[in-house]
Amino acid sequence: MIDDSILPESDTGALIDVDNVSMVLNGQCILQDINVQITRGQTVAVIGESGCGKTVFMKTLVGLLNPTRGRVRFDGQSLGQMSQGELTATRRRFGFVFQNAALFDSMTIYENVAFPLRQEKVQPPESDVRNRVMRHLAEVGLPTSAAAKRPAELSGGMRKRVGLARALILKPELVVYDEPTTGLDPIMSDVINELILDTRRRYPVTSIVVTHDMHTARKVSDRVLMFFPRWRLEPDDSQILFDGPPSELENAPDRRVRQFVRGEAGERLDEMTRQVDSISG
Ligand SMILES: Nc1ncnc2c1ncn2[C@@H]1O[C@H](COP(=O)(O)OP(=O)(O)OP(=O)(O)O)[C@@H](O)[C@H]1O
């Protein structure tokens, strides 16, 4: 890994500045020369076929993975140059909504939502914790009676809403949603989409939404990034095939983008058939 302190400072004013990032994992180049600036208040959907590097990109953005090359800056500060303490403090400005909600099974819903508050250096009084937990549960449309339950007693959609309440309780500046609607029926998916929009209406949060759900990408985002697997590109091709508003996806100049958003396999089917043929001899 190169020392990013030797790179010239050029603050772009973006909340997140992904500056020429490449990532090699197990000898395979997953991300190459990625440049993305995300301004405060934007909701960015990250789309692309399975294995193209969406999750690796998202983890690099929040400092869970260190890029092999380049740097990521949050609010002008390079994540790679932060001490562990600074990184932990910065991550407290992020909220994570995980695909499977990632709740603690042994804790009640109340304690799950209160969890980030319990990690604060200065513990707020219990009456304050209670007010905040109950308000956040109400904001995601969960009844008061849910507070005493355990995650196993709730439906998948309810658990996702608990995960959202927990992610928002510290009023994060950045919220990262990992497949927020996967596994939900269309109505519950739309409830989650509305909650994402509602959160943005309530305060100027910046959001990254990694999703396979084109309805979600179109509905909640004001910007879409479409990644393509690095190994299927020519060396000089950009790995981001689309960067623009969702309204322009349908008529994107790149055929691969149009095929993806319409759910058409196109030549991918031929490619896969050829791969199977070559394996089977
Ligand atoms: N920690 C890791 N170590 C080694 N390889 C990894 C690691 N994480 C991801 N990869 C590889 O990086 C590639 C991209 O993975 P990633 O999870 O980012 O894809 P994705 O676009 O999020 O896919 P999906 O939509 O299926 O979740 C895959 O080939 C994966 O095997």
UniProtKB/TrEMBL annotation:
Record carries keyword Nucleotide-binding: yes
ABC transporter domain: residues covered: 16-254
Gene3D superfamilies in UniProt: P-loop containing nucleotide triphosphate hydrolases (3.40.50.300)
Keywords: ATP-binding, Nucleotide-binding, Transport
Domain of life where this protein originates: Bacteria
One Pfam family per UniProt: ABC_tran
GO molecular function: ATP binding; ATP hydrolysis activity
InterPro entries: AAA+_ATPase, ABC_transporter-like_ATP-bd, ABC_transporter-like_CS, P-loop_NTPase
Signal sequence, renumbered to the chain: none
Protein name from the UniProt record: Putative ABC transporter ATP-binding protein
